[in-house]
Amino acid sequence: MDITNFSSKDKDHPKCEDSFDAYTALYRVHVFDSYFFLFKVEMERMQFFNLVFVPVCYSVFITIVGIFFNKKYPNYDWDNEMIIVKQSLPVIVTALVGFIFLMIPIFLNWIFHLQMIYVLPIISMGLVVMSLMMYRKMSQSNFI
């Protein structure tokens, strides 16, 4: 499925529909898998909450951080698409920020011996708050 050359405003474009269908199918698989784990593996509600909520929070946070840094440090001088997508400063900084925030619950568990099942929702809520703050700041800027 090639979704490289379409405008997001063109809702009637078949490639746009394909990408939406792929996203919807992926969401359905995630929901099915989550319910499967809930009933077949006999998870508690907090574990199920962590299974669904934590990955979504981390995904939203890393996406917002990536957009934030791309908007703050745009790079319009490039020769190859790979350079801008994989080797630009915002991509590297976003990867480092994501890694650091991924390691925070692990270090809290190692150092303070806090249980991950209670640390992850708190960290995830903090990520949501930071994502909302960054999104609000990006929405108020007048460039790009």
Set out the fold topology.
Blueprint: H1 14-40, H2 45-72, H3 81-86, H4 89-112, H5 116-140
Helix pairs in contact: 1-2, 2-4, 2-5, 4-5
Describe the structure.
This protein has 144 residues and is an all-alpha fold. The protein is 76% helix and 0% strand. It is built from five helices and no strands. The two termini are 29 Å apart.
What are its keywords?
single chain, 144 residues, mainly alpha, 76% helix, globular, disordered N terminus
Summarize the structure.
The chain has 144 residues and is mainly α. Helix content is 76%, strand content 0%.
Q: Provide the succession of SSEs.
A: HHHHH
Terminal Cα separation, in Å? Answer: 29 Å
Poorly predicted runs = 1-11
Number of helices: 5
- The residue-averaged pLDDT reads 81
Largest sheet: none
Shape: globular
Cα gyration radius (Å): 19 Å
Helical content band:
over 70%
Beta percentage is under 5%
* Structure classification: mainly alpha
Using DSSP, what is the number of strands? 0
